[in-house]
Amino acid sequence: MVVLPVLGLVLSLAAAQFNQDVIVQRNYNMARISRNWYTICMASDNMTRIEENGDLRLFMRNIHLLKNGSLKFDFLFMVQGECVAVAMVCEKTEKNGEFTVAYEGENKVLLSETDYRTYVIFYMENIKNGTKTRVLALYGNPLPLDRSYLKRFVNICQKYGLDSQKIINLTRKDNCYDIPQKN
Ligand SMILES: *[C@@H]1O[C@H](CO)[C@@H](O)[C@H](O)[C@H]1NC(C)=O
Ligand SMILES: *[C@@H]1O[C@H](CO)[C@@H](O)[C@H](O)[C@H]1NC(C)=O
Ligand SMILES: *[C@@H]1O[C@H](CO)[C@@H](O)[C@H](O)[C@H]1NC(C)=O
Ligand SMILES: *[C@@H]1O[C@H](CO)[C@@H](O)[C@H](O)[C@H]1NC(C)=O
């Protein structure tokens, strides 16, 4: 398999510990998060939407900063065991790190924090048919992140008032890893 040489590199990245000193929480340089990312875990105040067959259970593959400042999210979405590609263009707002996008309703998307290197956390508010749903997602390198990042994610859940008992781990929960990815 072609993926094997890549695994060694990825394993060494995955060994990194969460480092409080390199977190960025404002004045983001969006170009630095423009790259491959993978969904590590998610939390929501409506689990139905992120559990299996949930409309917001999205497997991140790539974030791309467009010339006009919008962010294109390339996700995979599982439909009856099949991986379907979804591209979402999040329009930038006048606030750094804040975006809006229509997807399963109207969404406000906020970059919550990143270290530009191993992880990025996005917060999203979705309004569908008059109901607001809040979702938090941790994206990282393709292989499992060190558990210290999960601890951080628990903290951020609490910051947004989300129940940290209900975090779901989506590491390798999709079967789409054999689709070749551009680096
Ligand atoms: C949660 O999401 C499901 C699926 O969209 C919906 O049917 C249900 O009403 C939602 N529950 C709440 C409490 O918003
Ligand atoms: C930015 O560019 C993308 C891709 O061309 C386009 O879909 C989007 O509507 C543009 N946004 C704005 C605000 O012009
Ligand atoms: C939207 O909400 C209305 C009123 O709350 C409800 O009657 C209707 O069934 C909902 N539609 C969908 C698609 O959930
Ligand atoms: C998620 O599950 C994988 C195994 O499937 C595990 O190795 C990893 O540590 C878990 N990640 C988190 C953040 O709990």
From TrEMBL:
Residues 36-174 form the Lipocalin/cytosolic fatty-acid binding domain. Keywords: Disulfide bond, Secreted, Signal. SUPFAM superfamilies: Lipocalins. It comes from the Eukaryota. The keyword Disulfide bond applies. It holds the Pfam family Lipocalin. GO terms for cellular component: extracellular space. It is found in: Secreted. Residues 1-16 form the signal peptide. GO terms for molecular function: small molecule binding. Belongs to the calycin superfamily. Lipocalin family. PANTHER family: EPIDIDYMAL-SPECIFIC LIPOCALIN-9, LIPOCALIN. This is Epididymal-specific lipocalin-9.
